[in-house]
Amino acid sequence: MRPSMFRSVFSVVRRQESSSSSVIRRSFFSEANPERKVAILGAAGGIGQPLSLLMKHNPLVSSLSLYDIAGTPGVAADVSHINTRAIVKGFMSDDQLGEALEGSDVVVIPAGVPRKPGMTRDDLFNINAGIVKGLCIAIAKYCPNAVVNMISNPVNSTVPIASEVFKKAGTYNEKKLFGVTTLDVVRAKTFYAGKANLDVSGVNVPVVGGHAGVTILPLFSQATPSTNALSNEDIVALTKRTQDGGTEVVEAKAGKGSATLSMAYAGALFADACLKGLNGVPDIVECSFVQSTVTELPFFASKVKLGKDGVEEIHGLGSLSDYEKEGLEKLKAELKSSIDKGVAFANQS
Ligand SMILES: NC(=O)c1ccc[n+]([C@@H]2O[C@H](COP(=O)([O-])OP(=O)(O)OC[C@H]3O[C@@H](n4cnc5c(N)ncnc54)[C@H](O)[C@@H]3O)[C@@H](O)[C@H]2O)c1
Ligand SMILES: O=C(O)C[C@H](O)C(=O)O
């Protein structure tokens, strides 16, 4: 969460506490922040639980809907006791999915299995593709206008699956479907600031392409603040570490899953950016994997300006170093094949 997000959380709590009138409380919320419902699908999982906690802290959320196939009553009861704005409800099993989704402005999807050591994200396809497809069919039915934040892996395929499901249902809006690649940006910022000895809070690094191995392309040549403290070898090492960041966590967890806490942080940042965009806050720009014409590939991650209808503008790649140009060409074949695989799966039967 950005420091400013925490500040706004605490200022809301303080204003609530200092107000003796519930009427004043209600009008403060309605003037500053409209009602917004956020649904989390997979809310009882390793990402889902801390993400639910962080979204409960977000003053932009008025209703928080926690859905999973197991465990949501406990998570929802627990999170609901926190004295922040959002009203929390837990939903479990298929017959409650419609109610969980109805009226949602933003749906975040961390449902599905995580990697174990030795697996690629694509190895998750066989299980997660079906989970994502089922959930997207329900989104098309119950909240077709919601902004969808796809976390479930392989993101390079699950986003195209979602787009095909929505197309079939006649609800597809390419401006409202996002693959969440924020964790790649979070990692690139952390590793760059650490290596260059910079204050990480002021660092920015765009990350483009997709979300798996070489398809993750951090653009350190565009990092701010720029530095001449890093050699070409440092940039190669930082690029590799960012691309392998997920694997670093999977190996450290030694069979107990993949990144959950840093992902919840990244997912909360991205959902917050979407909510701010919907609320008309200007100049909200984040990297995300979206339908795109930035390259010849139909989906691509790059900087995206978020607005009242989702994607407002997709930024181009800007000027790239020779090393980044090479990385861009190298990633295209793998990214295309993952996109094609998702599209083909969604259109079976
Ligand atoms: N995009 C990213 O940067 C990123 C980062 C980390 C993890 N991930 C991915 O996120 C996914 C979840 O990871 P995790 O560590 O939270 O896994 P987890 O196993 O801890 O949690 C997944 C949750 O999904 C639930 N679930 C399964 N099928 C469901 C369905 N049909 N409807 C609703 N919920 C369902 C499970 O019950 C479980 O609670 C994985 O696919 C992982 O690879 C993506
Ligand atoms: O690496 C994984 O499998 C999870 C996630 O995609 C990550 O980048 O941490």
UniProtKB/TrEMBL annotation:
UniProt xrefs under PROSITE patterns: MDH
Reaction catalysed by this enzyme: (S)-malate + NAD(+) = oxaloacetate + NADH + H(+)
UniProt-listed PANTHER family: MALATE AND LACTATE DEHYDROGENASE, MALATE DEHYDROGENASE
Binding site for substrate: 115, 121, 153, 187
Source organism of the structure: Zostera marina
EC numbers for this chain: 1.1.1.37
Keyword terms of this UniProt record: NAD, Oxidoreductase, Tricarboxylic acid cycle
The name this protein goes by in its record: Malate dehydrogenase
Subunit text: Homodimer.
